Every structure is written in C-alpha cells, then in structure tokens.
Amino acid sequence: MKVAPPQPEAPPATFKRLRGLYLIGLGALSLPGVLIGVPLGFALQPRWPAQISGLLSGVALLCSLLTLGLAWRQARSPEPGSTLSAAVLLASAPAVPLLMACALWRRGDALVLLLPLALLSAAAGWALLRSWAVAPPAHGPARKSAHPAGER
C-alpha cells in the first residue's frame, strides 16, 4: 500500500492574509446582497417554468467559472500584490450564485441549484487560496538581487 507524500503546509501568515481578504471581499459582496435580495424575494413571485431556473443556474455557473479563472490569472501576474488582489476577486465566484439565490429564495428549484453552486464555488476559492499560499506562482524571470554580484 502506497502512502501519499504529505502536502506542504501553507505559511500561516500568508494564508491568514489571503483568507482575510477573501472573507472581507465575500462579506462586502454578500451582506448588501442578502439585505437587498431577501426583501426583493418577498416582492418577486416568479411563475416561470423550471427550465428558466436551470438557465439562471447555468448563468451563475458560467459567472463563477469565469471569476475563478480571472482570479487564477490575476494571481499569476508578475505585479506586486497580484495574489492579494486575486483573493479579493475570488470572492465574486460564490457571491454570484448566492445573490441570485437570495433574490429567488421563493423558488425552491432555484435554491436547490444555486445554493450548492455557491458552496462549491466557495470551496474552490478556498482551495485556490491555500495553493497560492503554499506555492506562490512563478513571476517570470528571476528578480534582480538587492546586492550586486560583487557586494555581500
């Protein structure tokens, strides 16, 4: 029986910083959306067929995948602080289906499709954060040293 090699642990400070930015971004998007979406859900009583809920869930899935891809691309950017800004961008992935679910909470079929999608997006974002903290992306060619080659 083969034992898998242990996964490297994320540096606590790096993961803590990324996690904090991710949670702040998620809260900044979700809290106002919940406060607006839930009362809006009282006003909305959509009477459309279940296929429309499936279509909306597909749109939410597409938005979440695009956001995850854009955040991953941003994290690989050579700019300083790109991983930190990618963590904030990453919070949009679970926020999209969550906000749609808040506005459509009176439709049971929409909730069944959108809430698990929001949880899966949040889990994917969390996994990306951990991988960025463990192995920061390569930022192109090696940066110049602070000390010239002759001085030390």
Protein described:
- The chain crosses the membrane at residues 20-42, 54-72, 84-104, 111-129.
- Keywords: Membrane, Transmembrane, Transmembrane helix.
- The chain has 152 residues and is mainly alpha-helical.
- It has a domain at 52-134.
- It is 70% helix and 0% strand.
- It contains five helices and no strands.
- Helix 1 (12-43) packs parallel to helix 3 and helix 2 (50-75) runs antiparallel to helix 4 (92-103).
- The longest helix has 32 residues, at 12-43.
- It is elongated, with a radius of gyration of 20 Å.
- 29% of the residues are buried.
- Mean pLDDT is 79; it is low at 140-148.
List the helices and strands and how they pair.
Elements: H1 12-43, H2 50-75, H3 82-90, H4 92-103, H5 108-134
Keywords: Membrane, Transmembrane, Transmembrane helix
Transmembrane segments: 20-42, 54-72, 84-104, 111-129
